[in-house]
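Bench notes, afternoon.
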Amino acid sequence: MRVPAVSVPGDMPFLDVARTLSREHLSAVPVVDAEDHVVGVVSESDLLAKAAVMAAPHRPGPIGRLREHHLYEKSRGETAATLMTYPAVTVHPGELVTDAAWTAARSRLKRLPVTDHHGRLVGAVSRIDLLRSLIRDDAEIREDIESRILRREFLLDVGSIEVTVDNGVVTVAGRLDKTLVPKLLEAIRETDDVVKVVDDLSPS
């Protein structure tokens, strides 16, 4: 999650919203109320119809009017609140990465606002952030296991335990107190992106 997240107030004028997206290199930005609750999201798509009507205020033919009625109605808006898409699709800080990834994929959003349980904006997460967290390579998995589990959680000398990772399959070798083996293997199994754990440990 990236904090702080860029947001705009509902009363921000159209041109200022467009400038914000351009300045921050964003495709969409959450719209918040006075208490920082996310009330919607305004995107490049929401702004395009407005910009097109401003540049060439023509009406399409009868079929086009039926198909584009909603866009033309929205193009009359002048502020973030009248141009935004709502309700906003959001995720929570404690949500699993896989669940957030499914939400992003289903909604086809490039960037999701992250809100607390009161609907207040606390950050934002992009599709590339989610993708990176789901496809950690073997070296990153090994480093995570050695630093977080072996060193910090079990207070072990990394040199006494050999950890190898091949396509998410973790092999653990070395000598270890047999009472610690089940807990260590379970902690490794619960590590993100671990597919399988091979136990080559010997009791000390």
